[in-house]
Structures are given as structure tokens and as C-alpha cells.
Amino acid sequence: MISFSLAGKRALVTGANTGIGQAIAVGLAEAGAEVIAAGRSSCAETVALTGGRELRIDFADPMAARDAFAEPVDILVNNAGIIRRADSVDFTEADWDEVMDVNLKAVFFTCQAFAKAALARGAGGRIINIASLLSFQGGIRVPSYTASKHGVAGLTKLLANEWAAKGINVNAIAPGYIETNNTEALRADPARSQAILDRIPAGRWGEAADIAGAAVFLASPAAAYVHGAVLNVDGGWLAR
Hints:
It contains seven helices and seven strands. It has a single domain (10-232), classed as Rossmann fold, CATH 3.40.50.720. The protein has a seven-stranded parallel sheet with strand order 3-2-1-4-5-6-7, with helices on both faces. By secondary structure, it is α/β, with parallel strands linked by helices. Helix 1 crosses helix 7 and helix 3 (93-120) packs parallel to helix 4 (143-163).
């Protein structure tokens, strides 16, 4: 019997204070998981919605999660991320480094810390990284974000190759254009927003809750044989 239940599992979701991270945390909790909402700002609202607890972590330090897995964690969702926008000819080293540190370097070392702890206790686990449409496309005026999200997709596949046989499933979700803080500038530009909508077969911007179901699936026993996948949840954008 196929099971999507996460009863008895503990999940740590980074960047869980709002948007996609919060929606995933709520979805995992609804499926039965105990949720640890991790972020650099307050996750009090997410804790109230999930009945879980909070862990303050600032991934501006890519090694911030080195001690986050002292207690068993079964599911890791690497959602924390930032974005910087500027023409490539004007893009600064500081903006490049800040984005790469949070979006890629921290993802790797958080995965590493999770896997070390899981393997040390002889257990498997699930890692779900949040990639992007810009894991496949170039985008405009977001060079470090695009590079980091290409890296997340590649890193997901590499870690799956190394850890699948050890019982750790590593997969990613690539959200489409979702109504979050990261897309606020795009939605505020009427021409750009309409151009995006015109290309989405589903005919609407995605909602953060649209990502939660994919996360529950990848975290559940139903996805036991799914390794190294990057699942697009994009309203059909990449099919266009």
C-alpha cells in the first residue's frame, strides 16, 4: 500500500518563516511530521501553524547548521535563499558572494551535516533541496541566483549518486513563478508580470501551497525509489 504519511518523522525546514518554506512546513505537519522551523528571523507564525518548534539559524554563515542534527532529523528541506538583482556589468562581488554562500554553499554543508548524523546512527533520511526554473534557464539580472540554482540542481544529483545506496534520498523541487517576497519586484511591474502570465499554461502565478504537496510526496514512503530528481512545479512553464 502506497503511503504518504509522515507520522513519527521529524523534519527541519530552513527559511520557514514565510512563503514556500512556511507552506512546506505546514504541509509536512499536516502529513504527520514534527516540524522544526529554521530561519534567521522569527518563525513564530509557522510554529503556531504546525505545532512544531523554532530554530534560529542565519545561513549567511554557510556552516551555521553544523550542530543542528544532534537530535535525530529524518527530513531536511533546504529552502532558505536570497536574491540580488542588477545588470551583470554592474553586479558586485559582495552580492555574488552573499547569494552563493546562502543558496549553494550553505545547502551543501547543511546536507553534509544531515548525512553525517544520519549515517552515524545507521539511519536513512530524505533531503529536499529547493531549486528554481533558473536551475534550467538563464534569467535576467540575477547572475548569482542563476549560478546558485544551477548548482543546487547539480549538487542534488551528485549527492543522490553518493547516498542513494546508503538510504538517503536526495531530490529537489523547482518552483515556477510563485507569489513570494522574491518575486515581488516582478509582480509589481505590470508589463513583466503579464509577460510571465502569458507564458504559464496554468494561467496564474503559483501559490506557496502549490509546492507543499510535492514536498510531502518526496518526503514520504511513496517516493522511496526517487533519487536525484528535480521536480518542476511551475504551472507548465518549462513545457511551453
